[in-house]
Design goal:
3 helices; mainly alpha; rod-shaped; 81% helix
Length: 144
Amino acid sequence: MAKPTAYPFFEMDVSKMMAEFKMPGVDVDAIMASQRKNIEAVTAANQLAIEGMQAVVRRQAEILRQTMEETGAMLTEMMGAGSPEEKVTKQAELVKSAFEKALSNMKELAEMVAKSNSEAANVISKRVSDSLEELKTVMAKPGK
């Protein structure tokens, strides 16, 4: 015996239920196929969003690793021999370089997020457009 779900509506055969209403001029199979495509599009968009966020997290981890390595190298370099003036000059150069690198990393991550969001939105946008065309076609057909 099948385990009941929290959403019993999903266990029903919606196409059979709609067919029982016998609405003239309505192609229930076409409507159901369209809805199935809508669900597939939302699933695909969600998958793209998840993959995009995973790529961002991986890149953040890589940036953190690189930053830690570079920080260690900077500290070693700053502690090296040299006059106090040379150390201050070197420190200013390193701070400037680190700041520029941080800005570059933030821009890269923002672009990754924007690209991921755009790809997911494009899937949904295309599906909405296709769905409207399908609706026009279904409505234009003479009654079954």
